[in-house]
Automatic annotation (TrEMBL):
Residues 110-202 form the FecR protein domain. The keyword Glycosyltransferase does not apply. Keywords: Membrane, Transmembrane, Transmembrane helix. It comes from Roseivirga pacifica. InterPro entries: FecR, FecR_C, Ferrdict_sens_TM. The keyword Transmembrane helix applies. The chain crosses the membrane at residues 68-89. It holds the Pfam family FecR. One of its GO terms (molecular function) is sigma factor antagonist activity. This is FecR family protein. It comes from the Bacteria. Residues 245-313 form the Protein FecR C-terminal domain.
């Protein structure tokens, strides 16, 4: 008799619809026989143990009782097997191992001259600056909220004391529970900076770590591998979020990097000396042409032109008014 036929006999017996002929057939199956052939019906070890226990109990009981009870014991044991089948095969997931779902990662990038606003699954708000990339899980399922950043972004982190928010930027980890701060980690720069607006932030490298409070900045020096901290004007650092470019005694080499990222252009200097020229200025949502005109106006001995490859070339001398 195959498994399908045996199951049908069990169901007919429980429903009270079994025929006399089938009832005699079911009676012919001794509980001990079923136990000895258990491998034919179950494959899960835990299921075998449970069913065997029921059958052994029934067999032990049947050898001690009168023949009058033999039929009852055999059917009872068979019914035990039937229910074991139903539990095991109709609910397979309940017997399996529950696995953690794999993280699904999302990556977003901005080209030169672009900015992007993001809201993560936990409610954290991010503003991504030009020429940056960020990688984060679609949902935070672990005991931490870990993301990766290259470039610059401002974070307003949703507070969750049970899951610290961690930003990995090269060799630097920035860890918070819920606060707002700015991270600048462009790959072409010699340092990575973390500037805090609200809350408390931990910035760590392989060498050391520092704790930052509002209006403090941690700077990771790529050449030394350590982190230092100091006071900053956080409002000026965050002007970029509102479309404002601010230069505070910046070298033209630094001005070059900012304008390239902001407007998606290439800038070069006719001489190395020009790259060391300094500039202090603020531009609020100005066009590139307006900024270039302002620079050569402030530096009377300087000119600029655009070559055939759309590269802006500064030449002349760096002389202030």
């Amino acid at each position: 008799m195959n498994e399908k036929k045996l199951n049908q006999l069990f169901e007919d017996y429980l429903n009270g619809t079994i025929s006399p002929e089938d009832e005699r057939l079911l009676e012919s199956f001794d509980a001990k026989v079923l136990a000895e052939n258990l491998d034919k019906y179950t494959h899960a070890e835990r299921a075998k143990e449970r069913v065997s226990s029921k059958l052994n109990t029934a067999v032990g009981r049947s050898t001690k009782t009168r023949k009058l009870w033999a039929y009852t014991v055999r059917v009872a044991a068979a019914i035990s097997v039937f229910f074991a089948f139903k539990f095991i095969f109709l609910q397979p997931t309940s017997m399996g191992v529950v696995e953690e779902p794999a993280l699904v990662w999302v990556e977003r990038k901005t080209d030169w001259g672009e900015k992007l606003n993001l809201i993560l699954a936990d409610g954290t708000q991010i503003k991504l600056n030009s020429g940056s990339s960020i990688r984060f899980p679609k949902a935070f399922t672990a005991d931490e909220r870990r993301i990766e950043l290259s470039g610059e972004a401002f974070f307003d982190v949703a507070r969750d004391e049970s899951k610290p928010f961690i930003i990995q930027s090269d060799q630097v980890e920035t860890k918070v529970l819920g606060t707002s701060f700015n991270v600048q980690a462009y790959e072409d720069q010699r340092h990575i900076s973390v500037s805090v607006l609200t809350g408390r932030v931990e910035v760590a490298s392989l060498e050391n770590k520092v704790f930052l409070s509002p209006h403090e900045q941690g700077v990771y020096h790529r050449s030394k591998g350590n982190v230092t901290k100091g006071r900053v004007d956080i409002e000026k650092i965050l002007l970029w979020k509102d479309g404002i470019i601010h230069f505070e005694d910046a070298t033209f080499g630094e001005v070059k990097s900012v304008l390239e990222r902001w407007y998606g252009v290439n800038i070069s200097f006719a001489s190395k000396e020009l790259a060391q020229c300094h500039l202090t200025a603020t531009y609020a949502n100005e066009s590139l042409e307006t900024i270039l005109g302002s620079i050569v106006y402030a530096k009377k001995g300087m000119q600029y032109r655009m070559d055939d490859q759309k590269t802006i070339i500064f030449s002349g001398k760096c002389t202030d008014n």
